[in-house]
Every structure is written in structure tokens, then in C-alpha cells.
């Protein structure tokens, strides 16, 4: 039988590599720098032209700062409360992100609700006539025919 040689003692680089493998990486809670970046992005989104501002209007920079601070703080608290000890940092970060999005939309919707309260009511007859005019130039069958043909195929 062949004798087995004892394994050499681990070198310093092997020990360092093992320590690095055991190091953990935590993404929750986010650093103050990350939270500041989130607030700055919210301020930019709320106070500059974007898809959201086209629909709900632009928020003044002063209001945007106030809203961004409140949105981020509330989202951070909500995500922290939703976290449990066995939750992965990624799952908590997803909650944080969703809370920010939800609260930002709620903020702009409620703000635009104030400004649209004084807007004149939409004339439904005029809207329907416009839709019919747009459909008149189309070669596609009306929606009702599309639905019927799908039902006939089944």
C-alpha cells in the first residue's frame, strides 16, 4: 500500500481566501449614502419633466424635497417592519423599492387630484365621437367583431 503524505499546512494566501469566502455581504439596511441617493432621485423625478409629470404635473422643487424625504422615510420604516430575521436582504430591498414607488404615485395622484377638482367635466359624447372618427379611418374590424371571431374559433 502506498503511504499518504500529510497535507502541507495552509499558506497565508489560502487562509486569507477562506476568510474572504466566509465574509458576508449585507444589502439591508442601505447606507446613508444610498438613502440620500434615493431621495435625490425622487426629488429629480418629482420636480422635472417625465412620464409621471406629463400625467400628474410637475411638483415644485421645495415640495419635491419635502415629499421625497417623507416617502423615503416611510418606505424605509415599512420595509424594516416587514423584515424578519430569516428574510434575505434582497427581499427586504424589494419591499423598500415597492413602497417608494407606491408612495411616490400616491403623492403625485393626491396632488393632481387637488388640481383636477377644478377642471371642467369631460364631455363623454365628444370623447365617444372622437373615438368613432379615429376608428372610421381604420381598416381593422370593430372590437366586437374581433371578440366574436375568437369565440367562433373555439
TrEMBL record:
Record domain WPP: where: 24-115
Positions of the UniProt region annotated as Disordered: 107-154
GO cellular component terms listed in the entry, alphabetical order: cytoplasm; nucleus
InterPro entries found in the cross-reference section: WPP1/2/3, WPP_dom, WPP_sf
Isomerase recorded as keyword: no
Record localization: Cytoplasm; Nucleus
Alphabetical UniProt keywords: Cytoplasm, Nucleus
Basic and acidic residues bias locations: 145-154
Family matches, as Pfam families: WPP
PANTHER family registered for this protein in UniProt: WPP DOMAIN-CONTAINING PROTEIN 1-RELATED
Protein name: WPP domain-containing protein
Classification of source organism: Eukaryota, Viridiplantae, Streptophyta, Embryophyta, Tracheophyta
Amino acid at each position: 500500500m502506498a503511504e499518504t503524505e500529510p497535507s502541507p499546512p495552509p499558506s497565508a494566501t489560502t487562509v486569507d481566501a477562506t476568510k474572504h469566502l466566509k465574509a458576508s455581504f449585507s444589502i439591508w439596511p442601505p447606507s446613508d449614502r444610498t438613502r440620500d441617493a434615493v431621495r435625490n432621485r425622487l426629488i429629480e423625478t418629482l420636480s422635472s419633466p417625465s412620464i409621471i409629470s406629463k400625467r400628474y404635473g410637475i411638483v415644485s422643487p421645495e415640495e419635491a424635497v419635502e415629499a421625497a424625504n417623507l416617502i423615503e422615510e416611510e418606505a424605509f420604516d415599512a420595509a424594516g417592519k416587514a423584515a424578519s430575521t430569516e428574510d434575505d436582504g434582497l427581499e427586504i430591498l424589494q419591499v423598500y423599492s415597492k413602497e417608494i414607488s407606491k408612495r411616490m404615485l400616491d403623492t403625485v395622484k393626491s396632488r393632481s387630484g387637488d388640481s383636477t377638482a377644478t377642471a371642467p367635466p369631460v364631455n363623454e359624447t365628444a370623447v365617444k365621437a372622437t373615438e368613432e372618427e379615429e376608428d372610421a379611418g381604420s381598416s381593422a374590424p370593430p372590437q366586437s367583431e374581433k371578440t366574436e371571431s375568437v369565440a367562433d374559433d373555439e
